[in-house]
Design goal:
Number of domains: 2
Radius of gyration: 25 Å
CATH topology of the largest domain: Protocatechuate 3,4-Dioxygenase, subunit A
Strand content: 25-35%
Order of helices and strands: HEEEEEEEEE
Shape: globular
CATH architecture of the largest domain: Sandwich
CATH class of the largest domain: Mainly Beta
Structural class: alpha+beta
Helix content: 10-25%
Distance between the termini: 65 Å
Largest sheet: 5 strands, mixed
């Protein structure tokens, strides 16, 4: 039957089925696109950044600074950036971000403030840490220690990890949720991580 020979009754009968098929195909494409996109940032789903132990080498009253780099100290440079957000994805201005880690030999400075420092997030909840890739402390994988505290709120103490680090699987504290996104194709390396607070 050609298109010119279709009766009005045939067209009317075919229209709902055609409309349903078109709508189903359109919805399927929409759902497929939506479900493959990861949430950015990872907030708004009642999950917050998990806490981890501060370990034995935390030193209070670190200097306020965004760069932990110091002359004469070796190690591949890295810049860590991100935001501090509420569980509703609201940027948290003025939040404390305190970082400490080992030198490139896996040693902590327990008498001073080498590779230790804190800062406060800007109006959009952003932080920026310039430092080096830490060495591996015996028995652990490569990591940063971090404390985050929104104004007048409890402190979150946690750790950040590197992707595809060989020692990750053997580290009893390693949590894949705390892995940074790292781009090591340039110098300095660039890492990102957003902290989500309750």
């Amino acid at each position: 039957m050609s298109r010119l020979q279709l009766s009005r009754r045939t067209i009317v009968r075919m229209f709902p089925a055609s409309l349903i098929a078109f709508a189903s195909a359109t919805c399927a494409r929409s759902v497929k696109t939506t479900t493959t996109l990861a949430p950015t940032p990872a907030c708004g789903n009642d999950t917050t950044t998990p806490s981890q132990t501060e370990g034995p080498f935390y030193t209070p009253d670190s200097p306020q600074r965004t760069s932990l780099l110091e002359p004469g100290l070796s190690g591949p440079p890295i810049v860590i950036t991100g935001q501090v957000l509420s569980s509703n994805c609201v940027p948290m201005a003025g939040a404390l971000v305190d970082c400490w880690h080992t030198n490139d030999q896996g040693e902590y400075d327990n008498s001073g403030y080498t590779f230790r420092g804190h800062q406060f997030t800007d109006a959009e909840g952003r932080y920026h840490i310039e430092t080096i890739v830490p060495g591996i402390y015996p028995g652990r994988t490569r990591h940063f220690h971090i404390k985050v505290q929104a104004p007048n709120q409890p402190v979150l103490t946690t750790q950040l990890y590197f992707p595809e680090e060989p020692a990750n699987q053997g580290d009893f504290l390693f949590n894949p949720v705390l892995v940074m996104v790292v781009d090591n194709s340039d110098d300095p390396q660039k890492a990102t991580f957003d902290f989500v607070l309750a």
